């Protein structure tokens, strides 16, 4: 495969999101001749990340660690090492080794972003991984009953319907390197990931969204395969897009990539027990907003449903390649 010509010899793709879905996609995308920058939320306040955030006053490392692992070009055992979670030990149980390494790198280098960069070099990461801001933010949700739930980890567990999410401080400054990456991007990908707790916290950083809106880059939304209990119950594809538009104030995307493949009944039943269903592609609602839709069989099932990273990354690469050719 030949790289698309550009200043760096490769198209510059910025990916925004968090969680498992983003990591799966990046494992496929890193195999393409592209220059990747991942911008990751700093709103995580649960588990190991939440403890380190509170005790060490550092940015939450969990989503950063997941993306570093996905983009690393190392032996599988080293990847497993970053993801290893301790199950015993007072004060140690529940912590991921990768999170502890990131905490140590912050102390050694004196700065979290520098520490992430150094760890990226050690683990031969294919691309850059950047927090959306250099200050940990607090995510809050206003529910349809008027109540406010505080904390990224608590919002999906509240058992209520989300009306909107917002961050504190609301005027937090974006990381300058993240803004610069967006300005230079040939393509900007948003998703997959938890809509309200992984994707929107990035887009609520004012300068992040302002820069995306002003960009002439190709903008693609990758929709989740399944709804998420406590966040997107009953959501179709258009509902995800509407929530993004309501928070941002306008439509952002040129293309939407969605799964339209059948999910086996036994798999649907397994997810239904947890309150999750396949996200319905309501094509008419999506296209009437002006979005172009790429729909394909994009899921694999092993222990869990996941995006087919190879097929998804091929669709992304083809869209970017065509976009770059048109711009020449």
TrEMBL record:
<dbReference type="InterPro" id="IPR010119">
    <property type="entry name" value="Gluconeogen_factor"/>
</dbReference>
<dbReference type="Pfam" id="PF01933">
    <property type="entry name" value="CofD"/>
</dbReference>
<dbReference type="InterPro" id="IPR038136">
    <property type="entry name" value="CofD-like_dom_sf"/>
</dbReference>
<comment type="similarity">
    <text>Belongs to the gluconeogenesis factor family.</text>
</comment>
<dbReference type="GO" id="GO:0005737">
    <property type="term" value="C:cytoplasm"/>
</dbReference>
<protein>
    <recommendedName>
        <fullName>Gluconeogenesis factor</fullName>
    </recommendedName>
</protein>
<dbReference type="GO" id="GO:0008360">
    <property type="term" value="P:regulation of cell shape"/>
</dbReference>
<dbReference type="InterPro" id="IPR002882">
    <property type="entry name" value="CofD"/>
</dbReference>
<keyword id="KW-0963">Cytoplasm</keyword>
<dbReference type="GO" id="GO:0043743">
    <property type="term" value="F:LPPG:FO 2-phospho-L-lactate transferase activity"/>
</dbReference>
<comment type="function">
    <text>Required for morphogenesis under gluconeogenic growth conditions.</text>
</comment>
């Amino acid at each position: 495969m030949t790289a698309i010509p550009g200043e760096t010899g490769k198209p510059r793709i910025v990916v925004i999101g968090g969680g498992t879905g983003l990591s799966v996609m990046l494992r496929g995308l890193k195999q393409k001749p592209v220059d990747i920058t991942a911008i990751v939320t700093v709103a995580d306040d649960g588990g190991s990340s939440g403890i380190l955030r509170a005790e060490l006053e550092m940015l939450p490392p969990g989503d950063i660690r997941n993306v570093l692992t996905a983009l690393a070009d190392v032996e599988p055992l080293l990847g497993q090492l970053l993801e290893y979670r301790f199950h015993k030990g007072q004060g140690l149980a529940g912590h991921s080794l990768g999170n502890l390494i990131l905490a140590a790198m912050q102390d050694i280098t004196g700065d979290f972003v520098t520490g992430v960069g150094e760890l990226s070099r050690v683990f031969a990461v294919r691309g850059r991984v950047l927090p959306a801001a250099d200050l940990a933010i607090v995510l809050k949700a206003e529910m349809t009953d008027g109540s406010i739930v505080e904390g990224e980890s608590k919002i999906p567990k509240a058992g209520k319907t989300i009306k909107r999410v917002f961050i504190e401080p609301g005027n937090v400054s974006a990381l300058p390197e993240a803004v610069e990456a967006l300005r230079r991007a040939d393509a900007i990908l948003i998703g997959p990931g938890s809509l309200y707790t992984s994707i929107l916290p990035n887009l609520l950083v004012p300068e992040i969204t302002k820069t995306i809106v002003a960009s002439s880059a190709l903008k693609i939304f990758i929709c989740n395969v399944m709804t998420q209990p406590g966040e997107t119950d009953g959501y179709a594809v258009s509902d995800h897009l509407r929530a993004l538009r309501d928070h941002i104030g306008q439509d952002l995307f040129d293309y939407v990539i969605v799964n339209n493949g059948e999910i086996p009944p036994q798999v649907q039943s397994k997810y239904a027990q947890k309150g999750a269903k396949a996200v319905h592609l309501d094509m008419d609602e999506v296209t009437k907003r002006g979005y172009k839709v790429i729909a394909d069989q994009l899921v694999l099932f092993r222990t869990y449903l996941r995006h087919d990273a190879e097929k998804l990354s091929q669709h992304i690469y083809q869209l970017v390649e065509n976009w770059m050719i048109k711009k020449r």
